[in-house]
Design goal:
By secondary structure, this protein is of the alpha/beta class. It is built from ten helices and twelve strands. The strands form three sheets. Strands 5-3-6-11-10-7-8-9 form an eight-stranded parallel beta sheet, with helices on both faces. The chain has a two-stranded antiparallel ribbon with strand order 1-2. Helix 9 links the parallel strand 10 and strand 11. The radius of gyration is 20 Å and the shape is globular.
Length: 380
């Protein structure tokens, strides 16, 4: 069956079109890692047959002839619903070895304080990213002409034990960053940023942080627990993971239990930009100031989708009214171009609260924009 299917598909491609996926030797057994997707698990079919199926279903991504990089296939040649659901239909790898950047899912929502469901965020973001194409026509960024990028699946979290999940995440990311790869993470609730930053700071030292959110996530504890999605950045401060003079939090808003809810952040040296300061304004001038603040030292971008107004992104667990617009979100991420970015995440997409899929679509596009501002990405 696969030979006729591939033969038919090949008629749609230029005669010299290359294949970006690496063909597995007939006797080779693919390596698996703790964060590899279930689809890479051993099955009854032979490795050679599995590789053939990947090619036939569009995972041997058609790319511009002669490209040395993995390139998302064009919908002109491969129908969007076809193939394994990976980020932009990129090849799926079992590890970050040989990659400059990798998409990683962390399907965890055990740390959620209100509406659960962010564990399904990575899956839905991947599905919506089928709409995103190879080039950023607005900025001229050409990430797939610049970096070797792939999807390395999901971290195998422990849904019944949040501290153990943090350990699993930290260990997975230690391997990713040790390989020299920049992780772009699909959350998952915001708890996941804490163990990720443990791993990233272990390699790069204290990090600058561009944090977009409705909430500061610097609480101390809730219901007696010190680890949940409202505490990651306090834990990071306590462990020296952040360069507090280079932390900016944008879009913060909402009611509070304290008359001065931002005091802790400002006492640490964070710059807090409440949502009210962003209303009806371009954030391009703000990001000019942020670039000067960050300098050339390592920076991490953490983007909670609830930083956006729920009119645009209702599919999240703790929505707050009067937030940022999608255009302002683009201004923030594009304003990070030129920074020494060593990791990014997009968290708190809970797709069941948005039947339109728009929240996940926004998240998918924002992750693509993050990829486009990584160091060494060329412009057309």
């Amino acid at each position: 069956m696969r030979r006729p299917l591939w033969a038919g598909c090949s008629q749609l491609l230029p005669r010299q079109a290359g294949l970006c996926a690496v063909k597995l030797p007939a006797a080779a057994t693919p390596r698996r890692s703790p964060w590899a997707p279930a689809s890479l698990a051993a099955s009854g079919s032979s490795p050679g047959a599995s590789a053939g199926l990947l090619l036939a279903l569009g995972h041997g991504a058609p790319c511009r002839w002669g490209s040395q990089f993995n390139v998302p296939p064009s919908a002109q040649f491969v129908a969007r619903p076809v193939g394994v659901c990976s980020m932009m239909k990129l090849p799926v790898q079992a590890s970050a070895e040989g990659l400059d950047a990798a998409f990683v899912g962390v399907p965890l929502d055990t740390g959620t304080s209100n509406r659960p469901g962010a564990r399904f965020g990575p899956r839905q973001i991947r599905a919506e990213l089928a709409m995103v194409r190879r080039y950023n026509a607005s900025t001229g960024a050409a990430p797939f002409d610049s970096l070797q990028v792939a999807d390395i699946g999901d971290v195998n979290v422990n849904l019944y034990n949040l501290p153990d999940s943090c350990r699993l995440i930290r260990e997975a990311y230690q391997k990713i960053v040790a390989s020299g790869c920049v992780p772009l993470t699909l959350g998952g609730d915001h708890t996941i940023t804490y163990p990720i930053l443990q791993a990233v700071a272990e390699k790069h030292g204290p990090l600058g942080l561009v944090h977009v959110d409705a909430h500061t996530d610097t609480g101390d504890r809730a219901l007696g627990e010190k680890i949940y999605h409202g505490t990651p950045f306090r834990r990071c401060v306590e462990e020296g993971l952040l360069d507090c003079s280079r932390v900016v939090q944008i879009g913060i808003r909402g009611s509070s239990y304290d008359p001065d809810p931002y005091k802790y952040c400002r006492d640490q040296g964070f710059r807090v930009v409440p949502a009210e300061e962003c209303w009806r304004r371009s954030l391009v001038p703000l990001m000019g100031e942020v670039r000067k603040q960050m300098g050339d030292k390592p920076v991490y971008i953490s983007f909670d989708i609830d930083g956006l107004d729920p009119a645009y992104a209702p599919g999240t667990g703790t929505p707050e009214i009067a937030g940022l617009t999608p255009a302002q979100a683009l201004e923030i991420i594009r304003g990070c171009k030129g920074l020494n970015i060593v990791g990014c995440d997009l968290v708190e997409v809970a797709p069941m609260y948005d039947v339109s899929g728009n929240t996940a679509l926004l998240g998918a596009n924002l992750l693509f924009e993050m990829l486009c501002v990584l160091p060494r990405v060329k412009t057309m």
